[in-house]
Amino acid sequence: MVKERARILVVGGGxxxxxTALRLQEKLKRELERGDVEITVVTPDPxxxxxxxxxxxxxxxxxxxxxxxxxxxxLDRCRIVIGExxxxxxxxxxxxxxxxxxxxxxxxxxxxxxxELVLAPGSxxxxxxxxxxxxxxxxxKTVEEAIxxxxxxxxxxxxxxxxxxxxxxxxxxxxxxxxxxYAGVEALGELEDMARYTARYYHNVRPEDMxxxxxxxxxxxxxxxxxxxxxxxxxxxxxxxxxxxxxxxLDSCADRVAVLSDGARFPTRTVVWTxxxxxxxxxxxxxxxxxxxxxxxxxxxxxxxxxxxxxAAGDAAAVPDVTAEGPARETAPNAQHAVRQAKxxxxxxxxxLRGESLETYSHKYVGSVASLGLHKGVAHVYxxxxxxxxxxxxxxxxxxxxxxxxxxxxxxxxEWTLSGxxxxxxxxxxxxxxxRAEFELAAGGKPSHDPTDDPKxxx
Length: 459
Fold this sequence. Notes:
Layout: E1 6-11, H1 15-27, H2 29-34, E2 37-43, E3 47-49, H3 54-59, E4 68-70, H4 71-74, E5 79-89, E6 94-99, H5 102-105, E7 110-113, E8 116-119, E9 123-125, H6 133-136, E10 137-138, H7 143-162, H8 166-172, E11 174-178, H9 182-198, E12 211-215, H10 227-239, E13 242-245, E14 250-252, E15 257-260, E16 265-267, E17 270-273, E18 277-279, E19 296-297, E20 310-312, E21 317-318, H11 335-353, E22 367-371, E23 377-381, E24 384-387, H12 389-402, H13 406-421, H14 437-442
Parallel strand pairs: 1-2, 1-8, 2-5, 8-20, 10-17, 11-12, 11-17, 12-13, 19-21
Antiparallel strand pairs: 3-4, 5-6, 6-7, 9-18, 14-15, 15-16, 22-23, 23-24
Helix pairs in contact: 1-11, 7-8
């Protein structure tokens, strides 16, 4: 039984935020019914994005609405607040909250009080002060960016098909991806595969007309799958005429020209930035302890070190890896750990409220799988190395088992089945990003969006 009424504040609606709240609903069901416990989840979006499916959403294998999980439906015993926590004063147990209504009512940030804090805001894209990146770069962390990139790639093929200017055509058909981790390699692999298929429906655009370039600052890609599988992936991508440049950086993309550190210059209308992530700025706006890389210092029980009533996991947390041999190491900030940490985090908060002993997080990393396009992939799981179709199949099976809710599993499986029976969709719906443009023109006004200024180059 909970000692006293507890107000639990969960900051973030991603893997850790959603799974922790889901676990708390299960573990504290009776306390919630009695009103002894209140769970508030603050998140900027009303859904959780299952990020491993973003490349397939970009390729059109999965509908965007099936990549996300509606929080209000799943967390039906929690209070869901769409907004952002901008600062935390844990000494006073308060968090500054801004919502969609904050600007409208002019009251300023609201002060939320809590008894237990779960800090799981995730991470943000790590960018560098590269000329032109802010103006022309495209990210790949959200479902909106994934679908926007799909639309953009097909629109570039439309531009190339209709222009008479060789320079415009060449730039439209050049696609530069920066970052050789999961996000960059899987996004490039899926989109190149999709564009290769789409080209068969253009009378004057062939797959060999397109330039796909992967830029990686280190000497290897996909370090999670091991050195051997990383080398295989490079060979496989190059076999598909993808230009993989290791030990190379992007120096500039100003004026729609990608300038690389090896001296190469590529006029391009597409620069996709997937070169890592960094801790969410909220962590620096709190009075909680952080390590040298800006992540919250945590104990193996997922408490924030040196504090009480404050917890963290996932990308925001530096959690000791108790299974590692040798010097102290931290668990990797990936979904495999985040989901497992979230469940234990929910258990430990329930234990803490009931005055019970806490459990230690212990999970030995089992390996990784990556998709390189339809029927192509690499995997290194439980010491076994797979490539090609078996690795791709394992990738789908693994992530289907991990995507939340039976509803989403069934929908994703149905879409995969249908995509295997019928031809791919090759439609670009870029106008969805600016739905009022046509009406503004019809009403005699000037469109609020000028296509020529679009960093994605929409046409």
